[in-house]
Amino acid sequence: MKTTDDHLFLFAGTSHPALAQEIAVNAGIKLGKIAITEFPDGETGVEILHSVRGCDVFVLQTVARNPNHYLMELLIIIDALIRASAKSITAVIPYYGYCRQDRKTSTRVPITAKLVANLIEKAGANHIVSMDLHAPQVQGFFDVPVDDLQAYPVLLELLKDLNFNDFIVVTPDIGSVKLARAYANRSGVEYMIIDKSRTSATEVSVLNLYGDVKGKNVLLIDDICSTAGTLVAAAKACQEGGAKRIVAMITHGVFVDEAIEKIEASPIEVLVVSNTIPLTKKALSCKKIIVISVAKLFSKAISCIMTGESMFSE
């Protein structure tokens, strides 16, 4: 669905201009002109280069790679648009940074996902669009509408090209059971869970495989791959359990430290990842990784917001 409204603009922060361009083309809307600079002392400067008075504007910024910088840049852009008299501001955040810090895990720690929500809302955003939030309760951290899009319908389309049939969906995280169920229901297959124990921020010890993967193809799914520790440990557990082929699908490819090396050395045949985060050169050069664009899902969301149509099947 496309719109040619002269009072509608999509502004791109510096985190993912390629995705913003693709969304703008798919949705048929104009990219707003904006100047983003860095002063010698490291501060960020923003100037909107044309009138947005009375306009509905969308701001795309994925909060990854350098989350502190991109979050601050997003807040400054929103403030600039507010002061330029924009009618409405929707923050399009494909990857919501700090989403994993959604609760207190010990006595004296913050709930940073809530703090980020407060900052974005206080800056002036009156609608949020994100994708596969790691913690769905983040939607409740806002007092404005939040649309949490799902990547799996687009990612699953690739399985036909991979000739990947008769599979079972496996999730390496109890927190991703709902996501596993969505993948399984969409594919008409069963799903199962791997129970894990994290020994540190980067090390994972798999405890139990709840189900039988012997002689089966395994579709290993998760929302985020950061160090790849969880994903690779789960793949090894499936291999040891007798799985035939292992294909992984994740929404957000953070890929830090030695993640790519771990993936290359793992039993994972193919790893399908969306483009919510721009991949590093190392990740793009990995022959196991296939990137699928989710731009059309965000384009549809923008169109639905402007027309008042439902984004989701009733």
Rg of Cα set: 20 Å
What is the CATH level 1 assignment of the largest domain? Alpha Beta
- Coarse structural class: alpha/beta
Taken in chain order, the helices and strands follow as EHEEEEHEHEEHHEHEEEHEHEHEH
Number of DSSP helical runs: 10
Summarize it.
The chain has 314 residues and is an alpha/beta fold.
Written overview of the protein:
The protein has a seven-stranded mixed sheet with strand order 11-10-9-12-13-14-15. Strands 2-1-5-6-7-8 form a six-stranded parallel sheet, with helices on both faces. Strands 3-4 form a two-stranded antiparallel sheet. The chain contains ten helices and 15 strands. β5 (56-60), α2 (67-83) and β6 form a beta-alpha-beta unit. It is an alpha/beta fold and 314 residues long. The two termini are 18 Å apart. 44% of the residues are buried. The protein has two domains: 8-149, Rossmann fold; 152-293, Rossmann fold. α1 (17-27) crosses α10 and α2 (67-83) runs parallel beside α3.
Fill in the keyword field for this structure.
314 residues, alpha/beta, Rossmann fold, 2 domains, seven-stranded mixed sheet, six-stranded parallel sheet, 10 helices, 26% strand, globular
Any chance you could write out the topology, listing elements then pairs?
Blueprint: E1 8-12, H1 17-27, E2 30-31, E3 34-38, E4 44-48, E5 56-60, H2 67-83, E6 88-93, H3 112-123, E7 127-131, E8 146-149, H4 152-155, H5 159-162, E9 167-171, H6 177-187, E10 191-198, E11 204-210, E12 217-225, H7 229-240, E13 246-253, H8 259-264, E14 270-274, H9 281-284, E15 289-292, H10 295-307
Parallel strand pairs: 1-2, 1-5, 5-6, 6-7, 7-8, 9-10, 9-12, 12-13, 13-14, 14-15
Antiparallel strand pairs: 3-4, 10-11
